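Z., the sequence and structure:
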Amino acid sequence: GAGECFFAQAMFDSALVEYARVGVRWGTGDRAPASLYKLGLCEERLGRTAESRKTFEDLVKRFPQSGEAQLARDRIGLKR
């Protein structure tokens, strides 16, 4: 929830920290794909292009059937 609030306020550094925390604590939970996707978006908006791509690729690899994985594929130009 905190990550979403920071993201909505364009506080991407703070949002990034919160989304990363979800990945560390609940890396296989049902919110993990969404937090990884938002983490990638934060990295992208902060100009961390290589990190963002790596995050999106990790999302696709770990949660290939998720809706967020499809969004990540579209973002980095991967085909299913």
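The chain is about 75% helix and 0% strand. The chain has a mean pLDDT of 91.

Let me know what you think.
H.
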